Amino acid sequence: MPLIKDLLPHLTVCQLDEVQPALNRRGLSTYSGWYEILQDLVGPSRALDFRTEEEAKHEVMLRLFTSVFYRLRNNYVLKNSIHLNTNSFLTAAAKSVHHFILFPCIHQALQALTCDQQPLLALLEKHIRSVHVNHFLSLTENKTQGALYVLHRLLDHGVTTNLVVSIDCPLALAWLLHGRGSQYVNLELKKLMCCGSQTLSPSEDAVRCSPGDEATPSDNLSDHVSPCKRVKLYSESLEEEDKSGVSSVAVDPQVLCHTFSPCAGPSAGTCTFGQITRLEIRTCGPDSLKGLGFILPTFFCLQSLTLHSKSIFRESDVLDFAGALKQLSDSSCSSLVHLNIGLLPHIGLMKTLLNASPRLTSLYVEFQTVMWGPQFNLDHLGTAEPDISEFPLEKLTVKVTQLQTDPHFLTSVLRRCPYLTSLHIAGMRLPTGSSQSQLLSTLSGKESFSF
């Protein structure tokens, strides 16, 4: 046994992955082997953040899969290219990772998933639970159709329910959310879909599956898969616009699926839409926030929503967003229990959000007061409609960046959170002469809180 433990740090990624099940059955962990690789990838101090075998393995596989799949430069990959630049590694990693980072700008790698790497896509479809769109997603360029198809397969045919978006593009956001929980239909997107659908040739669609073309993806990437004859898009060779001025690129998931999928693949019949339960928008501008306001009222399957902006949201935009939250929460079908939002212009909007979505059990809010413009009187906020007597809030995190914070306002909110078990407050500065005693008295009996 000591010999095996000594050997673990010297095994390759594929070797570690292969021996792990047998060692685990004997009560042995492969953590030391994964930790050794993590140190090379992220450094010793960062590697300590991954404390379990599964956490360390997933981080290693995710980082290496992303580097190898997209052919990104990485010192570890360069040193171990003979073991990593193989189908065996991609197969092993695809079975281990639960998160997929999509770079629409790296067209060649994503296009490969529509052709010779269809079996790899089938594996990802079975295991990926979270997708991160990390770059601009164009709906008017043919070269991004591969990215749209991959997203369709993961979001609609696969098990993905978590979506992370790092782009500020309302139209791309509308495509990502279309049919995947909300009943709202973006008119501009609908126009693009209708226009793109007309580029299909009916005669070619009728012959897309000919005898001998059928193939079933397997877990072995070396197995030969002959994709069906592709449905050619009239706009592929000439990227020209129609008379309406809208690019005639196919963006309808149904059309993309019939275009790229093997005959025996998931495109047989009509595609169903998946459901997004967790949504995180890391670069949410005012237009994206406004667009989300139309989508939210019928987004009944959404359980967690995270919105962050590099600049401070306008109060009027936040109030409109709160109105959309109110429409959602008024429905008994609503599932939203977690909200994370920032940057808000003043702390008074916390009560507005809680009144708008009174079923929240977890709230993270970040405030940054503008240094110019009118000052806000917190006493009159929330009087447009009656306050909810009690909130079911269990976790509350408040991050404040402002010169002074009124403790009485925060205390008034906390008094109506009898089920609060976790509270974290950062950056709060009390006015001169104020004391934390009232706040601490309100918190007495809470299980966990910090400043």
Automatic annotation (TrEMBL):
Keyword Repeat: yes
Record's keyword annotation contains 4Fe-4S: no
Swiss-Prot/TrEMBL keywords: Leucine-rich repeat, Phosphoprotein, Repeat, Ubl conjugation pathway
Name of protein: Leucine-rich repeat-containing protein 41
